[in-house]
Amino acid sequence: MPETFLSELQTAVGKQNVATAATDTEVYAYDASLARGSPGIVVFPADTGEVAAVVRAARRAQVPFVPRGFGTNLSGGSISAPDGLVICLSRLNRILAINPKRRTALVQPGVTNLELQNALAKEGFFYAPDPASQKVATLGGNVGENSGGPRCVKYGVTKNHVLGLQCVLEDGDILQTGGETFDFAGLDLTAVLIGSEGTLGIVTEAIVKILPLPESLVTLLAVYDDVSHAASSVAQITGGGIQPSALEMMDAPVMRAVEESYPCGYPLDAAAVLIIEVEGPLAGLRTQADRIKEICRLNGCRSIDEARDAEQRDQLWAGRRGAFGAVARLAPNYLVADCTVPRTELPRALAQVADIAGEHGLEHGNVFHAGDGNLHPLLFFDSRDTDQLARVKQAGWKIMEACAALGGTITGEHGVGLEKLEAMRMVFSEEDLAVQRAVRNAFAGKGLLNPGKVIPEPANGPAQASAAKPEIEPTEGTGFAPMDAIEACQAVSWAHSQGKSLFPCCSGSSVTSLQQTDQVLQLSSTNLSGIVDYDPPNQVITVQAGLKLESLQKTLGQHCQWLPLRPGRFSSSSLGGLVASNDGGPERLRYGSLRDLVLGMSWIDAHGSQLRAGGRVLKNVAGYDLTRLMVGSAGSLGFITQVTLKVTALPEATRSVNAEGSLETIAAASSRLLISRLEPTLVVAIQMSSSTDLWRLTVGAEGFTETVDVQMDGIKELLEQSGLQPGEVCEYPYLTGPDLSPGNSCPDRSRGLRADVPLDRLADLAARVRRELELTDIELDFGCGRLLAGLDHLTQEQSQSLESLVRSHEGCMRLVEALPGSPASFARSETDEATAKALMRRIKQALDSDRLFAPEVPFGLASTHDEVPA
Amino acid sequence: MTLTELYDEIARCNRCGFCQVACPIFRSTGHEAGVARGRVALLRALIEKRIDWSNDLEEPLFACLLCGSCTANCFPKVATADLIIAARQEYLDTVGRSGAHRLLFTRLLPYPERLRLAAKTVALSQKSRLPKLARALGLLRIFGRDFPRSLDILDDFPLRAFRERFEPGILPGYGHGLSIAYFVGCGQDIMVPDSAERSLDLLRGQAETVRILPNVCCGLPARAYGDLRAARDLARQNLEILFRYEFDVVVSDCSSCASCLKKYPELFEPGDPGHSMATYLAERTRDILQLFPEAERLEDLPDARRTATYHDPCHASRGQGLVKEPRKLLKSLPGLEYRELPEADWCCGGPGSYALGHYDLSRSVLERKIANIEKTGAEVVYTSCPACLIQLRYGLKLFSLPVQAEHIAQAIPAAASAAPAAQSLY
Prior knowledge:
The complex is a heterodimer. Chain A is of the alpha+beta class.
């Protein structure tokens, strides 16, 4: 360590915030896992600037460094390299802003999850991911690990609730990704960073999505005398269309430990319990609770009771959340596995875990998120006994193998860290890992930022030169239309050897605006249109990229399921096309976008290799999220061959109501709707006429009939209170949604504009756009902050004017070009954030250095002298 | 016990980190060595020989408030405060102790008259300009780096101690049945004698006789500091004094003293005669919180409309489990509107001699407490420990909050003192 390093650090953060004594480094050598390191220095920067200064100093001195919150990491992610620098973010501990009207909050990484929840609760809002450690785990840590929590069975994980990040990269540059909008320009850097376990950047600010607190909730405790009965209840509860907001399981040893610590109300003579919660509008909760009780009884539960009051509920949760700490009464240490399996495999998985623990002479207990199949078997031991320690590690390995074999993954939320490094090969091939390494290197990596985590070193030394791959020839005039993935690889190999480029398309339409030429050929997924695997009980399906959405919905409909996506004018697209462009409709407010619905993906990379990312389960934090990187990448990073999607039960009822009024009135009503507890599924307004300020607002609700009926009453009342006259409630088809014509569904327009802004800027943007640019057919998605408009002509000047208008509204925009005879494609989606742009280019460079794929897609992915003019 | 003997207890920490939730020091500094998990890790490292005994351990070991919030949030209930005291003892034996503390524990605390004299000197010098002079001369630094600033906390040193106004001896009570021995803590005696007068009145109302004891310091400052030898000597002295007299119960209106007296048996080895004496005493010790009058008796008292809140001293809530009693009293007083204090049982940062050595931390913890008091909008904050009382008064003044801080005995108007105790004392 160079001598100047210490003084540079002292200058950067102040002498009193640099700790080097043995008593300091000793307490930063551990986290909540079993791993142990030996840091050399610990610093406590106060803000982003100081973090960047410290990072630059470490880089100059070639000292490895690791960010840290409050050290509750369970996989060794916070462990420093020997003599490394620990950058503790505990002083970045403020909530910077809470914006209920935008449904966003801006926080620093050192704020604990519970602190944020408490602050939001005062405004009537909450932040969905709620890891059990929320009292002590920081948001920075949550982002690093893509944390889950009991509530994520209904709402999703951290990745589904973070809109943007500010972080310091390994070279000290400050990167801003995303923003306060629900969509953004360019590649999904935010998603790559979330769950990257502090190896790609140090998060210094996060923009999170916040939701109105639900109106009501019911908490149930189901008691079982047989663990497998509890486990088999789980899949049936989730499969029946009910979305519990918590579905946790605890078994006897853990309950015993918990009750010894604090009496929380758990039975000491039962084999297992399920803690089940449903929440939402009051209407229909009782019915859902009754249905759940029925299911549990059918599966042999001994009893199922509701929590009497908030106090009893709090006690039950205190016990659940304190479980990991409580088991120290049984043994001083534990190894916690974190595998996820499909819910239907839970009984088998638990049985296998019990066998493995027994074989290794270990006691164990279970406390976990049964609702999403994320197991946490705790293997008890005393780490001072080295023999026990060895056996525990072997057992942990076997458990991961078993769960991977059941179609699951090795880590659902605790991360790979150090602990599961070698196990990554259970779910990824060497090529998959090579791509992840390439992405990591694109993040300015010199191997100093938290080295030795997440991705294991290459198996056989440095990457070998790839052997020559077989090729096929294109068809004259129409390019390639491979019959399977192998042929697709061969097409790519051909393009590679010939120095040509490819762009993805399906049945003649493409998300890019490219046309077939000698140099740039079509690579069509038309013949890759099958269903690979459909697992209705687990609500997941894997399809080939060329399958049309309509066809998919038909198949799903036969099992009373659907993919909750209504891309409007792009409905006739293939899944691959939709994924590449991330198109969707206003139902995104309730169901999320494709980014949230895609669980895994297979694609062909620029070397002609088949790659995989993600998996079949929602709770999956193994490796970097390349799945989401691919979503919305417009075919520029690879050719998607397969997509694994999360599907859901058909809504029992789909109803909407219309009301007409001025833009101002409509906007005010929408704003009130989105702060209320009414939980609308879509809030959209259509411009009725280009000459007058008359708009038609459509508000929809979907779900159980009982609930939807009451929701619609509430919505009508709110609209009336806002000075509108709502019409009759009517039903709409679930596949296509309410009729929004004359809106943006007309295909005649040759160009379309899509702008995404924070929710409270939408109305003003619409007014300005109407006035200054005379755009017509404007559709305003108030629920998602999106403006859609059709235009015939667009001059260079108008385009620039639009861009600066959108930017001044804190948003980003995309122009959609419709080629003659082709329904859709897009032309432009650029971020103006310089560091982000540079990073996207580096990623493109890392994954496709020869620009084999979609070379003219202007993400800012081309280098400057190649920029495509507007 | 030595640290090595406590290894199993120390190894029970499985690093879940929940102690971070309520540790006032951790909330202030964000530094791992300032929270139970870190302190326990250091003890483990000492046993496992990864680190040596050195001055670097002073801050982690002595900056702990011993408030016990960590253990309250710890599912396996690692008793960190006790582990820290044991470690402090070993630290003092191994690394050494400061002369000033030695002075305090062996030359001042066992001698109430000397303590009073020292206090008077400070009081007089406050009224003159001497503290500033002494500070300028750096004299006060012998007591520790932060002592000069912490002297500001003791703003209003009264000139006459309680046991100078009321000589130790027996006084008739207005009630029946009980004979109470009133253990007068140093805080009450020297720093807030007005409050002690109130308590005396209250006790006389509950008893047939009240004896003001000529006791010495209960020994808590020494015990907390880790000087268990000095603590034991003081305990022995008190036991010797107490056993001269007959009494039904020993009452202290200082929760710290009461808690300390109840733990006297832990200071002695089982074979030591002091052990059985201490056990006898501990069983008969009561905090004044356990002696409040019945609610009904307070009905016809004059209204004195006040909004009030309550701060739980660590030694009352976690030390003795007395949380409901003060609230029951305050809620039953007519003319008093009770408001619950957020984080009521969080430490105020002023345990005994803590502020002397850790002014900044103490102040930062205090700031949080004062902010919480402000949130209640109450006019007065009650508590049952003079150390807390002094710290709260200091904080209220420092942050210019127009709120009174009083001992909870002062909430009960004089007329109520004639009512007998709410609970059975046997």
